[in-house]
Amino acid sequence: MLLEVNGLCVNYGRIEAIRDITFTVEEGEVVTLIGANGAGKTTTMKTVSGLRPVRAGTIRFDGQDITHMPPHQRPVLGISQSPEGRGCFPGMTVNENLDMGAYARKDRKTKAVAEDRDRVFSLFPRLQERMNQTAGTMSGGEQQMLAMGRALMARPRLLLLDEPSMGLAPKLIAQIFDIVTEINNQGTTVLLVEQNAAQALKRANRAYILETGEIVREGTGSALAADDAVKAAYLGGD
Ligand code: ATP
């Protein structure tokens, strides 16, 4: 098992944002967490990347207990997050943002990084066209691509993608999900948080449904997509 989250509880002061959640991600999978606004999806992602402290429960990565590991050490192990929203360094160029993604790598001065930049550019040709442009002047969709590209520059084993489709035009949404599938096909395990449940379930091997901080359902993406209650609650009833 690549990621094992067990009995996780996370608070904001007295607010219990997530309560006793347990889920796993196997090497090679795309696993999605879906749920309404405020269900606890972003909190879960931030806790796996170390940005929120754990009140109870454990997080193991590749067998190692990382529950209390500082966030800057996790990319070294192979966990990399593309955060919700734009999350780029707005005053830096595309190339500089991509360099930041590789900072934790021991091999950052080598050919491997140049190869990974080429891979990012082949996934997102738009970023290559704009490599010397300042991130803050690009569109929301382009900044989303840059956030994903930057996360990939860490050459992660586990990519945490928080709402990659947020705020994008419908045409771009399908494209972003195609790229998620392609990233996974190239060998990266993906944990995906999404409000676009239809696309997320279609792309995921397995899914967990979060409601007010708890996991209420789990199953394969296709089984949940075909489930009447899930359809009514998350797929607009169709
Ligand atoms: P969204 O899609 O809106 O980001 P989410 O499913 O990611 O929703 P979280 O952002 O994880 O949900 O929020 C879970 C709960 O924690 C909510 O009740 C929210 O109000 C609360 N919460 C989130 N961030 C904070 C914060 N910084 N301070 C206090 N409460 C917070």
List the helices and strands and how they pair.
Layout: E1 3-12, E2 15-25, E3 30-34, H1 41-48, E4 56-61, E5 64-65, H2 74-77, E6 79-82, H3 94-101, H4 111-123, H5 125-129, H6 140-152, E7 158-162, H7 170-185, E8 189-194, H8 197-203, E9 206-211, E10 214-220, H9 221-225, H10 228-234
Helix pairs in contact: 3-6
This protein binds adenosine-5'-triphosphate.
Considering the chains and any ligands shown, give keywords for the structure:
238 residues, alpha/beta, Rossmann fold, six-stranded mixed sheet, four-stranded antiparallel sheet, binds adenosine-5'-triphosphate
Task: Tell me about this structure.
36% of the residues lie in helices and 26% in strands. The protein is α/β, with parallel strands linked by helices and 238 residues long. The protein has one domain: Rossmann fold. The protein starts with a strand and ends with a helix. The model has no long low-confidence stretch (mean pLDDT 92). The chain binds adenosine-5'-triphosphate. Adenosine-5'-triphosphate (ATP) binds at residues 12, 15, 17, 35, 37-43, 195.
Radius of gyration using CA atoms only? 17 Å
What's the CATH first level? Alpha Beta
Bound molecules: adenosine-5'-triphosphate
What is the name of the CATH superfamily? Answer: P-loop containing nucleotide triphosphate hydrolases
Q: What is the string of SSEs from the N terminus onward?
A: EEEHEEHEHHHHEHEHEEHH
Q: What number of domains?
A: 1
Strand adjacency order, main sheet: 6-7-8-3-9-10
> Which term fits the overall shape?
globular
What proportion of the residues form beta strands (DSSP E)? 25-35%
Give the overall average pLDDT: 92
Tell me roughly what share of residues is in helical segments.
Answer: 25-40%
CATH architecture: 3-Layer(aba) Sandwich
Structural class: alpha/beta
Helical stretch tally = 10
What is the tally of beta strands?
A: 10
